From TrEMBL:
This is Lipoprotein signal peptidase. Belongs to the peptidase A8 family. It comes from Fictibacillus fluitans. The gene is lspA. Pathway: Protein modification; lipoprotein biosynthesis (signal peptide cleavage). NCBIfam families: lspA. Its EC number is 3.4.23.36. The keyword Protease applies. Coiled coil: none annotated. It comes from the Bacteria. Its main location: membrane. This protein specifically catalyzes the removal of signal peptides from prolipoproteins. InterPro entries: Peptidase_A8. The chain crosses the membrane at residues 57-75, 87-105, 125-145.
Length: 160
């Protein structure tokens, strides 16, 4: 149950921050948080990560519905005794739902976290994107840990 509450928290934080940006900033307006590093910039995205697949709204809606159902199914059937995986899936569920709501309600995703590293300007993102990325990284870590554990179990079984 904690993982669904986490997903709801991510969803709520994502939607509140996006609402604040839409209500308080003009499109393209930028507020410096840390000079030459971090800005709050009002931006909109009609595509996916890094602005790819612009204006493919139905594609994203269908894919996101499939992802949401798959995550819920996987949490219920396969991740019951894997807390790291359930945490990761809770983050993915909250993030996917946050951007899904934007696409349904606004017909675009509100982005505002703007990071610059040296001369590189990272694509502007939001709370949902952050949760998705962290969730996917945790899934990758979980997969590596499982793979290592299975390998160690196989090696131990061969030694006996």
């Amino acid at each position: 149950m904690f993982y669904y509450i986490l997903a709801l928290f991510v969803l709520g934080l994502d939607q509140v921050t996006k609402w604040m940006i839409v209500k308080n900033m003009h499109y393209g307006e930028s507020i410096t948080v840390i000079e030459n590093v971090f800005y709050i910039t009002s931006h909109r995205n009609r595509g996916a990560a890094f602005g790819i697949l612009q204006n493919q709204m139905w594609f994203f809606i269908i894919i996101t519905i499939a992802v949401i159902f798959a995550v819920i199914y996987y949490m219920q059937k396969h991740a019951k005794h894997q807390p790291l995986l359930r945490l990761a899936l809770g983050l993915v569920l909250g993030g996917a739902t946050g951007n899904f709501l934007d696409r349904i309600i606004r017909k675009e995703v509100v982005d505002f976290l703007d990071v610059k590293i040296g001369s590189y300007n990272y694509p502007i993102f939001n709370v949902a994107d952050s949760a998705l990325v962290i969730g996917v990284i945790l899934i990758f870590i979980q997969t590596l840990m499982e793979s290592k554990s299975k390998k160690e179990n196989m090696n131990g079984a061969h030694r006996s």
